[in-house]
Amino acid sequence: VPVSRIRNFSIIAHIDHGKSTLADRLLQDTGTVSNREMKEQFLDNMELERERGITIKLQAARMNYTALDGQEYVLNLIDTPGHVDFSYEVSRSLLACEGALLVVDASQGVEAQTLANVYLALESNLEIIPVLNKIDLPGAEPERVRAEIEEIIGLDCSGAILTSAKQGIGIQEILESVVLLVPPPRDTIDEPLRALIFDSYYDSYRGVIVYFRVMDGSVKRGDKVRLMASGKEYVIDELGILSPTQIEVDELHAGEVGYFAASIKAVGDARVGDTITLVSKPAAKPLDGYAEAKPMVFCGLFPTDADQYPELREALDKLRLNDAALQYEPETSSAMGFGFRCGFLGLLHMEIVQERLEREYDLDLITTAPSVVYRVTDNHGTQSYIDNPSTLPDPNHRQKIEEPYVKLEMITPEEYVGTLMELCQNRRGEFKDMKYLTKGRTTVIYEMPLAEVVTDFFDRMKSNTRGYASMEYQPIGYRENNLVKLDLMINGDPVDALAMIVHRDKAYNVGRAMTEKLKELIPRHQFKVPIQAAIGSKIIASENIPALRKDVLAKCYGGDISRKKKLLQKQAKGKKRMKSVGTVDVPQEAFMAVLKLN
Ligand code: GDP
Ligand code: MG
């Protein structure tokens, strides 16, 4: 097809506003996927994604569409992950497009992810087509939401398309608008090859499958290509389009989207954002803006059963083939034994990896509480990065500690502004700005230590606003604070896996809350178990878990049978995940106790 009849676009939306459902309808209406083949949400093909209803990995699909002008067009839909953890991937996949459908739930309105994604799209100079979805819902208010988008984003919405992805309303109109409004790619077929990698995954037979958009020039099967950031060279042994199943072709040219296989061993060798060029006729410069996604959150992963350590290593090695952002290195903990210190893009990424390890590799894991990466300057002025609180140098050996900060942008109905601000204030947030977006909707902006965000800020925000508020955050660099290491001791021994770094002003409260929480979570033993919190050699809080009585049910004083049952269930559950720390059995929940403090 000539470049003039190609359209590359993506769909951006806040989570749950209907992006996947709409993508399904587009594939169906263009006959790309037959009704019979159509499983709900074709593009979300990982089991985990399907269950959580989120899009983790981006994907692409090529559709043929005969427009009302009688011409046949090729429409490439490039799906973007909706979550902030993957914002680098979002920005890369948007660069592979000339336009974007901005999907907003007409019964809800603009949310934090809508804004964050629109800004990314505007930065990439995309043509944005507003779509008001879910108009079939009785609560849909397309007129209100239309005004809201115009007011908040400054986007002309007079031509916004009203759709119900669920009922298939407005789909034809979307396809026509893509053809009419999204500009065709630039025709640069004669220039040296430059292709942008926007996704990749590992296939055990063919090696890494690279998804890319040809920006300039063309590429053929058998070509020897170079990845400009990594400098590595490969021969393309399979080339094709995504329809959305892979179909081999001989050649792809500027404007087209496709995949190739070239016996690449791990996705880390073909990173998202890298530029592909020809070895025989290389481009002078790579495409702009390549960066490696850096882990922001770390935790320890330990097998419950020490014998599973080799299996855990193997599982991580395999996951890594598919996940360039996942980092890990061996960690030995005096309390936990052998395990790995793992780095993730964010909390969702962390959860996904943990869940996959347990589900797909059948491992029983104990995970420690998430930590951010601290920057420590020693007495000689040398900086180092600490991702494990237990390894923080003691105060005599350091000049200062800095921690990563983020800019947090929340959108909430007006009546929750107060509780939201209180929550942020309690989390060491610094108020920056507040704007009334439209009647009843407010955006609140704070700067806050990332450490305060990763300890279940999101869940608190949701529950404090009955689910109505949404948020996004962006890293804004390091800041110095008065931070101290808080140690927790069980039965007299410090447990390295429970060590944490906290602000000095909060240390006392956190120490007390932690000892109370651990007392609640750790089961009774045959002997008394003291729990203590300390800063350096100074004990700041302590509790005792009394020795076990013969009958656990004795404390239920008679009657309440359901309570007894609950207690028994709780015990049975607790048994599943225990780690012996010295002579004390500590359940998994205890290592996450910091996330459950009030
Ligand atoms: P995504 O997170 O943006 O990919 O959203 P999904 O496509 O997964 O949709 C989220 C939920 O909204 C699902 O339960 C869909 O069935 C539902 N949904 C999507 N589009 C519509 C629509 O047009 N009308 C109604 N009533 N529900 C919809
Ligand atoms: Mg989705």
From TrEMBL:
<dbReference type="GO" id="GO:0003746">
    <property type="term" value="F:translation elongation factor activity"/>
</dbReference>
<feature type="domain" description="Tr-type G">
    <location>
        <begin position="4"/>
        <end position="186"/>
    </location>
</feature>
<dbReference type="InterPro" id="IPR031157">
    <property type="entry name" value="G_TR_CS"/>
</dbReference>
<dbReference type="GO" id="GO:0043022">
    <property type="term" value="F:ribosome binding"/>
</dbReference>
<dbReference type="InterPro" id="IPR027417">
    <property type="entry name" value="P-loop_NTPase"/>
</dbReference>
<comment type="similarity">
    <text>Belongs to the TRAFAC class translation factor GTPase superfamily. Classic translation factor GTPase family. LepA subfamily.</text>
</comment>
<dbReference type="GO" id="GO:0005525">
    <property type="term" value="F:GTP binding"/>
</dbReference>
<protein>
    <recommendedName>
        <fullName>elongation factor 4</fullName>
        <ecNumber>3.6.5.n1</ecNumber>
    </recommendedName>
</protein>
<keyword id="KW-1003">Cell membrane</keyword>
<keyword id="KW-0378">Hydrolase</keyword>
<comment type="function">
    <text>Required for accurate and efficient protein synthesis under certain stress conditions. May act as a fidelity factor of the translation reaction, by catalyzing a one-codon backward translocation of tRNAs on improperly translocated ribosomes. Back-translocation proceeds from a post-translocation (POST) complex to a pre-translocation (PRE) complex, thus giving elongation factor G a second chance to translocate the tRNAs correctly. Binds to ribosomes in a GTP-dependent manner.</text>
</comment>
<dbReference type="Pfam" id="PF00009">
    <property type="entry name" value="GTP_EFTU"/>
</dbReference>
<dbReference type="GO" id="GO:0003924">
    <property type="term" value="F:GTPase activity"/>
</dbReference>
<dbReference type="InterPro" id="IPR006297">
    <property type="entry name" value="EF-4"/>
</dbReference>
<dbReference type="InterPro" id="IPR035654">
    <property type="entry name" value="LepA_IV"/>
</dbReference>
<dbReference type="InterPro" id="IPR013842">
    <property type="entry name" value="LepA_CTD"/>
</dbReference>
<dbReference type="InterPro" id="IPR004161">
    <property type="entry name" value="EFTu-like_2"/>
</dbReference>
<comment type="similarity">
    <text>Belongs to the GTP-binding elongation factor family. LepA subfamily.</text>
</comment>
<dbReference type="InterPro" id="IPR000795">
    <property type="entry name" value="T_Tr_GTP-bd_dom"/>
</dbReference>
<dbReference type="InterPro" id="IPR038363">
    <property type="entry name" value="LepA_C_sf"/>
</dbReference>
<keyword id="KW-0342">GTP-binding</keyword>
<keyword id="KW-0648">Protein biosynthesis</keyword>
<keyword id="KW-0997">Cell inner membrane</keyword>
<keyword id="KW-0472">Membrane</keyword>
<dbReference type="InterPro" id="IPR000640">
    <property type="entry name" value="EFG_V-like"/>
</dbReference>
<dbReference type="GO" id="GO:0045727">
    <property type="term" value="P:positive regulation of translation"/>
</dbReference>
<dbReference type="Pfam" id="PF06421">
    <property type="entry name" value="LepA_C"/>
</dbReference>
<keyword id="KW-0251">Elongation factor</keyword>
<dbReference type="InterPro" id="IPR027518">
    <property type="entry name" value="GUFP"/>
</dbReference>
<dbReference type="InterPro" id="IPR005225">
    <property type="entry name" value="Small_GTP-bd"/>
</dbReference>
<dbReference type="Pfam" id="PF03144">
    <property type="entry name" value="GTP_EFTU_D2"/>
</dbReference>
<keyword id="KW-0547">Nucleotide-binding</keyword>
<dbReference type="Pfam" id="PF00679">
    <property type="entry name" value="EFG_C"/>
</dbReference>
<dbReference type="InterPro" id="IPR035647">
    <property type="entry name" value="EFG_III/V"/>
</dbReference>
